[in-house]
Every structure is written in C-alpha cells, then in structure tokens.
Predict the structure.
Amino acid sequence: MRSIARCFAVGLLGLATITSAHAAPVLLISIDGLRPADVIEAQQRGLKLPNLQRFMTQGSYASEVRGVLPTLTYPSHTTLLTGVSPDRHGIAGNLTFDPTNKNQQGWAWYASDIRVPTLWDAAHAAGLSTANVHWPVSVGAMVDWNLPQIWRTGLPDDRKLLAALATPGLLPALEKQLGPYADGIDESLAGDVTRSRFAVELMEEHKPAFMTAYLTSLDHEQHASGPDTPESKHTLERIDGLVGDLVSAAMKVHPDGVVAVVSDHGFLPVQQDVNLYAPFIQAGLITLKDGAVTDWQAMPWNDGGSAAIVLREPGNAATLAKVSALLAQLQGNPAYGIERVLDHAQLVEQGGTSQATWFVLFKPGFEMAVKPDTPLPAPSHYRGMHGYDPAMPAMRSTFLVVGKGVPAAKNLGAVDMRDIAPTLARLLGVSLAQAQGKTLLSP
C-alpha cells in the first residue's frame, strides 16, 4: 500500500490535474479484432450494433486506425496505452522471444516489460484511481483494482495464479458476490459475459477515474471460423450488448465521464500455413535433437501474418550473408507466400522491434505455421488471421469515443494508433509526454 505521505503528495498533483477544464473520468473498452467498417457499415453487413453505432451519432469516431508493426494484440494494446510504437515500448510480439521453447509458450504478460509510462501510470501520478479487467500486458501494472490477463495451462492452478497476481483480496471478494471469474485462457463469449459483469461491479463499487476492460471473443471466433462468418457476426452482436452494459454503468457512476472503444487490428481470411522453420533448419541455422532446439544462429519469431527474424549474433557477417541469401530464395518461391521482407533499417523506421534483423510479411491467405514439422503446403490451422502489414486496409482498427469534451457526430478521419493514448490523456486530464502521436480532439 502507498504511504499516507505519498498519497497526500500524489493527491495534490491529482487535484491540480483533474480539475482542469476538460478533465473527466475515462472508461476504455477494447474489442479485440473489431474492424472499423463493422460499425460504420453495420447495416450493409447485416449487423445489429445499436450501442456501438450510438458512438457515431453521440460522439466521435475514426474512419480507420492504422496500427503498429506487427498488427498483433499485445504490441497494439501497449501502443493504445502509451502512444508509442513497439520499438519504444518494448512489447514486440504476443509471445516472448523463446528460441529453445524453455518458456513453454509464455506471452508478454508483465507490465514491467513496458519501457515507457502507460495511461495507468499517468493516472496514478495524478492521484487518480484506476481499475483493469483482463487488459493485455497488465500483470503487476500500477493499478488500484487489477484483474490482469494471464494463464498457463487452463487447469485449476491458473485460477490460483490469477488470484495471487490480482490486487490482493480483490478476486475472492468479487467472486463471493458474482460467482466464479472466467479463466485467463478462456476467450469465449461466455468469458466476455463474465468479465463484463465483474467490470460493471468494479465500476459501481470503486468508481475508478480511469478503467480498462478487454473483450476477447470476437478475435477468438474470427480465428476459428474466419471474419464475416455467421458465427463471428453473432459474437459481435452479443458483444454490442456487453458494451451497452459497460457504458450504462460508466455513465451511472460518472455522468460527466468519457467512454472510448478501441480495437487492436483487423482480420483477413487465411488458407495456407507456411513452415518458415524448416528452411532455417535445413540451412543449419537451427539445430534440432529429438524435436527440440539445441542450438540456433537465426530464428523466426512467429507473428501470425508475419515473422521477425532474430540473429543470435547480429554482427556475425557470415550469418548475415547466409540468412540474407536464404530469405531471397524463399521470397522467390511462391509456396512461401512472402509479400516482402523488411531489412533492419526499414523495420525500425516502421516502429518494429530492433531485436530483429529482418521482418517477413506474408501475403493475404498465408500465415506462419506453429510447428517445425508442418508440411509445405499445409492447410492453415486458423480460418482468420492478423499480424499482416499495417499498411493493408484489412488490418485497420477502430476508435470510438463519447462523453465530456467530445464533439457529437464527428468523423475524425484516418488516424494513427499512436494518437489514441494522448487523446485519452487529454480527456482524462493527465500527461503522457512521451507519446509519438497527436491529440485528435481540439482543446
């Protein structure tokens, strides 16, 4: 717990900040995989989304949001909270880079890996209360009431892990009122329904000035059945109802507050798995024994519709030449579905991780295979995928905002994902000095 002296000092800072002319409590809702046209063109797409479309008439919205490289959940959600690209905030992919698989498919769960202040940090510095339900990269975040996202196996021990990493005593107290919380590994619609109930209870009980809530099931369904399927449309319509519940609770608690809805990336249908590991193994750049990696000089880092290529010794001239020649060969083979390969300078210029030496971007319909023994060709293990070039219109994401200080029925046009955090910071009345983006709403 914070000391009384620290609380008093931070409280004074917060008083000076939150009483500014435009300061308002903010609820930030993320719908993973929500494409902007799903809301803007809902009727044409046969979707009934009254709650999401209400943002377009009562608030402001972006016609599209250009995302970051790679267009994945964890890097994008960290940009949404920081206003900077992955090269600056440090969350380069969903999975940690783990060439020998010793971390057993560990994700980038921990907020301590974020290199710059987040909106949670900015709110805390201003003495504002914060809450979170399931936002990516939130374990250990400076959040007053935190239900972070983490899982390991989906077995009962995961529930103990979440309870231990959440704000002490928070999960048992909520479960006593609401019943069991959703497992971290549960990305189903039922999981979203449960987490929304917990988010509403947190808002009503604690009235946080800044709160984040993350809904997963649209992304989950679009991976399973593809975008624009009846199953995906049904899931989105159900999520629209959950958004209505969250907005109602937020406006009841903070009538002069702000609610924003964001997403992290778009979606494309996919048909083909690409085993990028096999040619690296055949070239002697990866050594296997009994199916396990025992040594490596260059390793693909799976990003779905793309892959970073990491060198163990980035300055090794022989390895550089060998991998460069291999990538040129693969790019010339249509079976690998490679759209283009970014070199290190191009990658960093586009905000991707400097940890990689090259970055492979696949064509639509192709995705990175998960296993090194996947045959080529092979049908895709998913029906929908993202992670492709953020320049692709199909990878565009969503921004909707309504409330105090937000113009009604305003189309903000095409925006950069890095613009969202500084915009929310201004509405919240806090400072996010490192943000690369601009504020989208006039002061």
Remarks:
- The longest strand covers residues 60-66.
- The first helix runs from residue 4 to 18.
